[in-house]
Design goal:
Blueprint (H helix, E strand, L loop, with lengths): L2 H23 L15 H5 L21 H21 L4 H27 L8 H4 L5 E6 L6 E8 L2 E9 L10 E8 L2 E6 H5 L1
Length: 198
């Protein structure tokens, strides 16, 4: 086996596994077998329990040594090495060094992309964020006189809906802007926004 054959083999393995991984995840093609390693390489070789927690603030626990980074490394290592051995007049050691650098760079790019994908930018909700009273909303189902309707409001940057009653018992039409006065047993007691804005 020559160096160019070795590089070509690495490229084909890395590229074909990347395509299979993409098809299995994005297009939902299921393979007839489930592959599991009998050990956890990412857990033991990826820097222990911390993963990237210390390196990237707010990131989920991801090991730098995972299937995606390995496939990227193999594809770029193999592709670069194959091209260098076939078309450049370099020593085998120089081609190997450049190929390793190219593979590590590709693995690093994929790892950074994965970290960005699962990074948690949102801060934990405070007591103020969970407070329903004082939230602004809109009536989605009209509130009848002394009856119940439905409202839509935002809480902690999440859109929510709830059953609602008028605080003074008067009807409120659909689309009216409201303020939640209190929230009891899953029912929001509301008033029209105009009453507060005067």
């Amino acid at each position: 086996m020559t160096w160019s054959d070795f590089y070509l083999f690495c490229f084909l393995v890395g590229f074909s596994l990347s395509v299979v991984s993409f098809l299995a995840g994005a297009v939902h093609i299921h393979l007839p077998v489930k592959w599991h390693l009998p050990f956890h390489l990412g857990h033991h070789w990826g820097g222990g329990h911390g993963g990237v927690r210390g390196a990237f603030k707010g990131a989920a626990e991801i090991s730098w040594f995972n299937a995606s980074t390995i496939m990227a490394f193999l594809a770029w290592f193999g592709g670069t090495g194959y091209l260098l051995t076939r078309h450049a007049r370099l020593l085998a050691l120089a081609s190997l060094g450049i190929s390793v650098v190219a593979g590590l760079f590709a693995g690093w790019v994929v790892f950074r992309f994965m970290v960005k994908l699962v990074q948690r930018d949102d801060a934990p909700m405070t007591t103020e964020d969970r407070r329903v009273e004082g939230a602004l909303g809109t009536v989605s189902l009209p509130i009848r006189e002394n009856g119940t309707g439905e409202i839509i409001f935002s809480l902690g940057e999440t859109r929510r809906c709830a059953g609602a009653r008028s605080g003074d018992g008067r009807p409120i039409e659909k689309g009216a802007e409201i303020v939640i006065e209190r929230y009891e047993k899953g029912i929001a007691y509301v008033r029209r926004w105009e009453e507060f804005s005067k």
